UniProtKB/TrEMBL annotation:
Name of this chain's protein: ATP-binding cassette domain-containing protein
Organism of this sequence: Tessaracoccus lacteus
Any Pfam family: ABC_tran
InterPro entries to which the protein is assigned, alphabetical: AAA+_ATPase (IPR003593), ABC_osmolyte_uptake_ATP-bind (IPR051921), ABC_transporter-like_ATP-bd (IPR003439), ABC_transporter-like_CS (IPR017871), P-loop_NTPase (IPR027417)
Keyword Nucleotide-binding: yes
SMART domains: AAA (SM00382)
ABC transporter domain boundaries: 2-237
Lineage, top ranks: Bacteria, Bacillati, Actinomycetota, Actinomycetes, Propionibacteriales
PROSITE patterns attached to this UniProt entry: ABC_TRANSPORTER_1, ABC_TRANSPORTER_2
GO molecular function (one): ATP binding
Swiss-Prot/TrEMBL keywords: ATP-binding, Nucleotide-binding
Length: 270
């Protein structure tokens, strides 16, 4: 379990990024932190692996203050996936995944074997192993990022808008893949996004943030959709709802329902 206990972060005096944020994240669940840009999502995520230290308050993992842990060891024990992938450009795909394992003390051969297994697990063909990151599509790069984060078999996976830079259809594939992986692996996932659809699709629970990491509402997607806590939440989820609303187009004399991304979702009955 991850617990935020009244954490506040002031990067500079008088400029509060996160104010008195408290949240318990149960193990083996996916919690989506949903908020617009600047609401403090990245700050919160990075406090879990000590890339950001709180100004006050504590973050606990299984009851232990993360400050009691060695920062490097802590960071290595937690998977972290970034929007840009954060891959090493001068290393091949397989080495990008294997490097994490080598750092953890594994020798070259078993590290490569495990890296190949991880590539397979996230849906990457083995023929891509020798390529460099720049020779992959955005979606493939994000899969490598996920494989790398999973390499040390962490209990916790932090994901910071990991699918934000890919087009909507690839994004949907990556979300499906994550749902499938999570059903198999049961990690504790903290997933940060500003995309309402994505949060509702992936989160067992969603935490809607207003500015400064203030929780506007927390609940299952169904709970939040059924009863937004206030106008802020209603507006926030409603604004994006218009985008994903269905419309119809006529193709070959048939009326086809399409979603907000123009993807066909069904044929209308006449
Ligand atoms: P989000 O990820 O939701 O976009 P961030 O956590 O990145 O939000 O940022 C929250 C606030 O903290 C913003 O106002 C941002 O400008 C500020 N901030 C983030 N990182 C730093 C930093 N390293 N130094 C100073 N201010 C920062
Ligand atoms: Mg951010």
């Amino acid at each position: 379990m991850i617990e935020f206990d009244e954490v506040t972060k002031e990067y500079r005096r008088g400029s509060v990024a996160v104010e008195a944020f408290s949240l318990e994240i149960p193990s083996h669940r996916t919690v989506a932190l949903l908020g617009s840009s600047g609401s403090g999502k990245t700050t919160l995520l990075r406090m879990v692996n000590r890339m950001v230290e709180p100004t006050s308050g504590r973050v606990l993992i299984d009851g232990e203050d993360v400050r009691a842990r060695d920062a490097v060891e802590l960071r290595r024990s937690i998977g972290y996936v970034l929007q840009a992938g954060g891959l090493l450009p001068h290393r091949t795909v397989i080495d990008n995944v294997a490097t994490v394992l080598r750092l953890g003390g594994m020798t070259r051969k078993p590290a490569r074997l495990r890296a190949a297994e991880l590539m397979d697990r996230v849906g990457l063909e083995s023929s891509l192993a020798r390529r460099y990151p720049a020779e992959l599509s955005g979606g493939q790069q994000q899969r490598v990022g996920v494989a790398r984060a999973l390499a040390p078999d962490p209990n916790i996976l932090l994901m910071d808008e990991p699918f934000g830079a890919v087009d909507p259809i690839v994004r949907r594939d990556l979300q499906d893949e994550l749902l499938r992986l999570q059903a198999e692996l049961g990690k504790t996932i903290v997933f940060v996004t500003h995309d309402v659809d994505e949060a509702f699709r992936l989160g067992d629970e969603v935490v809607v943030l207003r500015g400064h990491g203030v929780v506007a509402q927390r609940g299952t997607p169904a709970e939040i959709l059924a009863a937004p806590a206030d106008d802020f939440v209603a507006d926030f989820i409603g604004a994006n709802r218009a985008e994903r609303s269905l419309s119809t187009v006529d193709i070959g004399g048939r009326s086809i329902a399409v979603d907000g991304n123009g993807r066909p979702v069904g044929v209308m009955q006449k």
